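PROTOCOL LOG
Step 1. Enter all chains and additional molecules of the complex.
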Amino acid sequence: MSIGFLGLGTMGQPIAHNLLRAGHALTVWNRSAAAAQPLLEAGAQLAAQPADAVRGPVLFSMLADDAAVRETLLERGALDALPAGSVHVNMATISVALARELSALHAERGVAYLAIPVLGRSDVAAAGQLNLLAAGDAAALARVQPLLEVIGRKTWYFGDAPEQANAVKLAANLCLASAIGTMAEASALVRGHGVDAADFLGMLGSTVFAAPAYQNYGGMIAEQRYSPAGFKTTLGLKDVRLALNAGESRHVPMPLAAVLRDQFIDAIAHGDGELDWSALAKVAARRAGQA
Amino acid sequence: MSIGFLGLGTMGQPIAHNLLRAGHALTVWNRSAAAAQPLLEAGAQLAAQPADAVRGPVLFSMLADDAAVRETLLERGALDALPAGSVHVNMATISVALARELSALHAERGVAYLAIPVLGRSDVAAAGQLNLLAAGDAAALARVQPLLEVIGRKTWYFGDAPEQANAVKLAANLCLASAIGTMAEASALVRGHGVDAADFLGMLGSTVFAAPAYQNYGGMIAEQRYSPAGFKTTLGLKDVRLALNAGESRHVPMPLAAVLRDQFIDAIAHGDGELDWSALAKVAARRAGQA
Amino acid sequence: MSIGFLGLGTMGQPIAHNLLRAGHALTVWNRSAAAAQPLLEAGAQLAAQPADAVRGPVLFSMLADDAAVRETLLERGALDALPAGSVHVNMATISVALARELSALHAERGVAYLAIPVLGRSDVAAAGQLNLLAAGDAAALARVQPLLEVIGRKTWYFGDAPEQANAVKLAANLCLASAIGTMAEASALVRGHGVDAADFLGMLGSTVFAAPAYQNYGGMIAEQRYSPAGFKTTLGLKDVRLALNAGESRHVPMPLAAVLRDQFIDAIAHGDGELDWSALAKVAARRAGQA
Amino acid sequence: MSIGFLGLGTMGQPIAHNLLRAGHALTVWNRSAAAAQPLLEAGAQLAAQPADAVRGPVLFSMLADDAAVRETLLERGALDALPAGSVHVNMATISVALARELSALHAERGVAYLAIPVLGRSDVAAAGQLNLLAAGDAAALARVQPLLEVIGRKTWYFGDAPEQANAVKLAANLCLASAIGTMAEASALVRGHGVDAADFLGMLGSTVFAAPAYQNYGGMIAEQRYSPAGFKTTLGLKDVRLALNAGESRHVPMPLAAVLRDQFIDAIAHGDGELDWSALAKVAARRAGQA
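Step 2. Run joint prediction.
Step 3. Record the structure below.
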């Protein structure tokens, strides 16, 4: 199938490779063309402009945030280039408000709009094992499902309004932020009593919390290893803010998210915006006078 | 070995059975003698008073809270009955302050004091698969380790001050409370966007949070099944309060614990104190006007 | 002096009247022309479009929020109509981000931009006794100070960047929201102990908190009289959100604002968005099971 | 009248002086006798033990906290020395739980127990202008009212259960803590935008918050003058904790109090426990990276 692909960052790159490897004809675009090089070598075509990447019945996009989506899709014309009857799969973690706006704009043009943000880091993407959080028109989803098979291990469907998948993605990231913030706070507590936080976190990750989220982030906190960042503190703040906004738009109080937002801001105020978001543990330790 | 055992509640009962089954001579005491019946039938001796249960070199106690420990150990004389050189294994989840006080009182009497609160519910206790969170004198711990083998799957050692194990236990329960509170808040968020909370929680428990804590409590929240309670809301409040106090005594700010405390109080104010602590989800839903 | 005036709501109306009464020639515009009637009868001219109101060296605007300012000033051309050398006095409570954007746009056009949000309700505005929170070019402020004399009792100057006045206004409104939220919480506490909240609030407002803010809002809470609204719950949420955003843009954690935001959302979720923002007391009472 | 008086600290001293000056025969006791010297010179008698101070129909006590009250009244026998029919006026800021316990103990002995904590610092006490927050038996209060006239400017009556006055006192102190914490947070916000916090706080205290609480604490924050302490950070933490406990005992969620508690702990963790509680402003500034 002929597929357009916008956005070749850490996540977009391996996803595009998997589509290419499955035999599809890819036309790719990225803000800085250099990132496209490995894909071109593997057989993809380069589009000079976002609109030029629209070549067939399906467009994928994996852009950084609301601003990048707005610029690429709306201002630089990719949306207008989509023919009626085509499908746009937007994998970005964006605000529920923008998702709603995009739904309407696609509908006006007779283009099916699917929001399919993903769970998993770049190595998981490379292995084609992402969890795909999908929402939008079910028939359109069925059409692209064969493509999704080469990207993810499972497609989770949350409803026919695309923003529902974005709400789920933000909720899932909130759960991760909270797990990190809770380990940070609990570690400060045991450390205050002379217990090695690594002992505590090791026990947690081997017993009631034997899940990747606790093991990975718990390990980083135990070793105070916040660099290189898997997911930056500034991105943590962005996603928690989007979750709070998504809540506010439906009148959902979110007191835990509010505390976490506050701590990400504290981290950034202390120059740690580029560290991994598990650096929330530095905030908890500093507030306790432990650092 | 001749062992005394105080407290035959939901957790004490199966632990005592395992010790008995391993061939030890048990003298048991419980506030209401009826609970001792199954153990007596299995060969244990009944003590009329807490002090009468002190028969050999080791005393186990698994009492409900600070008040029960204070009454049984201090006021009703069990501590005074312990001979110098004996070992007391206290498995209760108590305050760090009481743990410190008990350490001093045992030391005065030449009695080794081990705090070994446990992770796991009664079915895990029955299977002898508890995780044992231990602190206190290492030599004393080595002496009782053969007994611990029949109770738990692993002994985790956190330091030579007994209260360190209590701090770890409170920190672990805080993590559980936070996981519940976070699932509650995130579920209210997705529900506000028309997503079935069960779909969201099912996905979480199958992916990044594939751990028992998320699966069990997530399932209860998904089904709004808060009764019978595995662990009551009132107990959740008690443990979060003890965690906050343990933090305060070492100058550790704990903003997430503070939010959770507030929500347990809200649940109790609405008559849900006897429900499982996963009923925090009712609080989140109610505040969002969803219930 | 010939003055343009945009926005004749609850606050704009009495301010415009005071300028007219002081002998100035006013050209006024309002989204719904009906609101302009009393001013026309008093001698003002009606502008058909925002840009038509720009008649002399000074333009005042008192619009509802960011969206109204953006529409009126930017989209409907008022800003473009301002001649170089003129002064625009923006009295709206807007975001710090928009204030910054407007500063740049005015500077490009050689128009002096003053942000002068006000403290005081409509009766205070009618009496010409507003407190004027000003920031922007000091020379421009000196030029309009004679006009400000008929509007307010005092001009407070906070710096030469216009957004500084907006930050101060948001900070002041946060203080009001917090005073309300605190009275709400403290009232729930004493009520929980059988004390009449009116007795408590009456004492507060006659002693350590003998200030208008506590007396007025305390009285409303004591009498549970939240309608008619002096300032609506939805506006309270808006301003606290703007304060949080203003903080985030400078990396300032704001945990109290975050709690208040959460409670405004709770109020709105329960259908109380149109009540006075002192209806936060309903939230506190409800959470305590008192209502 | 012959009056006993226990506790001659910063507050007890001037209150006792006023009673003496009004012509009453005072027998005083203080943990360190040195503090009694000025009163003895003015004609008071010294009691060697708390119980010895009980000489007539009325006993006043103004002790530091729960522990001091418990020791002086219960352990050292002052309560047992009170004859049936006498009146005990307890002016200390204590927990609602202890107040309830003391009510029962006094009732058993036929002694009237009045809780009358006060609002006002030592200079206000010296001027006999305290606000007296009273609860307990109304007839007993009427008996001592002539004595209260020389101590305070007004007696506020909150109910016949003594703990009601303690709940009110804790609620009032919570309002003060919140005013301080809010000024701290709002000051960090405006400072983040380059506004001098002193300008902001000066404006607040001259307008909507023209009340002693905002003027005094606002001035200390503006000048960053946290020493000498009028009321120490450690005492602020104590009173907010007592307020939270008082809330919990009646199922009242108190999210603002919880945030303030957290910040007092942060202050103490950074060595500022002995500073005035307005040093919460240091916490807000530090979290924003401003200090």
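Step 4. Note key features.
The first helix of chain A runs from residue 12 to 21.
The mean pLDDT of chain A is 97.
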